Every structure is written in C-alpha cells, then in structure tokens.
C-alpha cells in the first residue's frame, strides 16, 4: 500500500508523489503532486463515482477539461471537478507542469496509480510508445470502477475492447 512520500515514476516520465496518503487521514482523501513532462500520457475523459477531484497548478500550464469545457490553468490557478462530471487533463505546454491533486474521498486512487506504476515496471515498459500501454491501462482502469470510469461510449467501448485483447493475449494485471 502506498504511503506519504512515495514517488511513482511512469514510463512517460511523469511522477506521482503522495503528499498525504489515505492512511494519514482514514481514507478521507489522497493528495499527490503530479510532475507532468511535455508529452506525458493524459487519462481518457472519465468520471468519479464518489470523489471530488481538485487541481492546483504549482508550476507551468495545465489544460483541464471539466464537463466538456477546456481551460488552461497557470501557477496558483485551481479547478474542482464535482462527483460524476466528465473531465480529464493534458500538458500541451511543451514544458514540465507541477500540479497538486486531491481526490476526496480517496476511492483507492493511490492504489490505482501504484498498480499502474508497479505493473509497467514489472513488464519492462520503459516508454509511453510501448504498444502494451493502452491495453494494460484499459485492463487496470476497468478493475477500479470506484476510482474512475469511462463515462461515454467513445471511451468505454475501446477501453473494453482493449481489455478484451489483453485477456486474449493472456496479459495479467498482477505485477
């Protein structure tokens, strides 16, 4: 289980550092600082069943989509995503972005991020261009419906199909 101070490094160079783990606050929230280099993999548009998600840009510029509307956030800017609202984010700036992110309640978000990090490392995935990335991300995401879920058919159908391809190829999400 992830704890405060853990740093999870992804194949795309992004880093997720836990600054307040669920163990520190009885699962009320998890707080992380995301370091997102240019070209980092953005999550597909998704919703959270229970958590409210908050972003605060510490350095750089981050594009955030909430409910279909895109907005560019700079240092000190914040965005809040209510429960059940479609959202995503992207670093389109060409420079590294630092973002404070909070999910409350935590809904296993830190477990989800840790699972992705541990699995990609154990499979020797070292690049965001590895063709296994979308398959593994789809398989893992569908295992955490309380954490995040694809809300629209245009994300749900390909994600379900890619997870099926992973099962046919006998990919395992056990690190």
- Main sheet: strands, sense, barrel: 6 strands, antiparallel
Order of helices and strands: EEEEEEEEEHHH
* CA-based gyration radius: 15 Å
- Order of strands across the main sheet: 1-2-3-9-4-7
Quick one: overall form?
globular
Give the count of helical stretches. Answer: 3
Helix content: 10-25%
**Roughly how many Å apart are the termini?**
14 Å
Rounded mean pLDDT score: 96
Low-confidence stretches: none
Strand portion, in percent?
25-35%
Structure, described:
The strands form 2 sheets. The protein has a 6-stranded antiparallel sheet with strand order 1-2-3-9-4-7, covered by helices on one side. Strands 6-5-8 form a 3-stranded antiparallel sheet, with no helix packed on it. Helix 1 runs antiparallel to helix 2 and helix 2 crosses helix 3. Strand 1 and strand 2 form a beta hairpin. The chain is of the alpha+beta class and 175 residues long. Helix content is 22%, strand content 29%.
């Amino acid at each position: 289980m992830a704890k405060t101070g853990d740093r999870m490094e992804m194949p795309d160079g992004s880093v997720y550092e836990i600054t307040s783990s669920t163990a520190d606050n009885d699962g009320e929230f998890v707080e992380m600082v995301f370091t997102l280099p240019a070209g980092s993999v953005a999550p597909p548009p998704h919703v959270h069943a229970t958590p409210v998600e908050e972003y605060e840009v510490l350095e750089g510029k981050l594009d955030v989509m909430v409910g279909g509307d895109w907005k560019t956030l700079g240092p000190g800017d914040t965005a809040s995503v209510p429960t059940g609202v479609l959202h995503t984010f992207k670093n389109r700036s060409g420079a590294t972005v630092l973002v404070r992110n909070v999910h409350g309640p935590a809904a296993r978000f830190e477990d989800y991020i840790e699972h992705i990090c541990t699995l990609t490392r154990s499979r020797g995935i070292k690049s965001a261009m590895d063709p296994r990335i979308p398959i593994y991300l789809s398989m893992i995401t569908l295992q955490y419906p309380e954490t995040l879920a694809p809300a629209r058919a245009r994300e749900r159908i390909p994600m379900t199909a890619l997870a099926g391809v992973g099962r046919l190829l006998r990919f395992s999400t056990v690190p």
